[in-house]
# Entry
Amino acid sequence: MKKILLLLSIIIASNSCKMNTGFNDQNTYNEESPNEIKKTQVLTLGSFHFNFPNLDVKKVTEDDQIDVLDPQYQKEIELIVSKLEKFKPTKIVIERRPELQKRFDSLYNSYLQGIHTLSRSEEQQIGFRLAKRLGLKTLYCTDAWGEDYQDVKQLFADKDSIPRQKFLDFFYHNPDSLLTKSQNDKPLYKTKGILAALKQYNDRDDLRESLGSYLTGIFKYEIPENHQFGVDFTTGWWFNRNLRIFRNIQRINATPQDRVLVIYGAGHMNLLNVFFEASPEYDLLYVNDYLN
# Structure
């Protein structure tokens, strides 16, 4: 009896060791063992658009704009870049479409050679400067537009149609506008500087609240033929677009040894951060831990 118990103990111990080594029953290494999975670290920086192109729904009046080329802001941007440098990114992602990759590669190379003067855009003021400091060879263009449902495409096909005008009136003037925060105050970058504004834009509570704005207002818009029209519109306009952006970021083929910095308009982070947090491939870090 003692010999049988001893034999069973040896078998159990042997199987235990085999399981802990990550080998399967065929004695081959299982690379997908949950204990072996490593994630790529990602840091997302949500920003206002430094050059104020006014392509977003909310327009920025001239009185609320700043010139980031002014010496006081240039000094502050250098400080921000120094803070982000501590993350030591190996890849930098910017809000430009992939078809513009060659153009931005050329601009960045010209900047490295001292030929190109940085534009006011955040991808150059922050992205190009940081990439140069770190000796990176490129920045990755990953922006995308969403894909609309057919009913949405049809409504927008005729620019002068009454249904289209009714939709736009509701888009800009709907009862749920009262649910959003009042934005009558001066922008923080105007009163307290760029760094303070970036910290605010990347506050987790503010980002979560901003996502809620996409579930009210135009989200509820209905037409007789489709009571889900607002949902269809918002799906393509925001959710589909950011999923496509996320897929483009996946396509840069970062490895667990990489550290990825994503520089995008702050509004995108209310979804991109959710995707990075949920993804088994990425480990999302919080930029305010570096900006503070």
